[in-house]
């Protein structure tokens, strides 16, 4: 059977832009900061009435992709079998999850039992944390990030996120470090 011909690689969208425009866009993206915003109250009321499983499964999928790659499994061992809850305050989301033998999974809240750790913040603050625009300590001491329950678990989560070498990850993904 003859080998299939290889097609030339199409140019990336950034390669189609003139050099100075490409540089200006790259600089604008490098300097980009998430604006202050909150989810409108009417939308939050609607979201809070919707099933929480789809966003919980999205969170679990993202955590499982990171597990073993950028989140060290052995460091997170104390989370095993514990019930964690993430509350997105302005969006009305409550995401229940935990760490099992095969990775992160959805946790079903037991009647009358509180989660072992609850982490609460606004949508904007969680995004800023994920993009490394804000430091967890800054958000915590300004009371924009709240942890309730087992504070040792909270410190473990915070210290694990702080220990991730985000610049190395960006380099592996071919992204420019800021």
TrEMBL record:
**Key words of the record:** Ubiquinone biosynthesis
One matching Pfam family is SCP2
SCP2 domain location is 73-162
Q: What domain of life is recorded for the organism?
A: Bacteria
Q: In which pathway does it act?
A: Cofactor biosynthesis; ubiquinone biosynthesis
UniProt-listed HAMAP family: UbiT
Q: So what family is this one in?
A: Belongs to the UbiT family.
Protein's job: Required for O(2)-independent ubiquinone (coenzyme Q) biosynthesis. Likely functions as an accessory factor.
Would you tell me the protein name for this molecule? Answer: Ubiquinone biosynthesis accessory factor UbiT
Protein source organism: Thauera mechernichensis
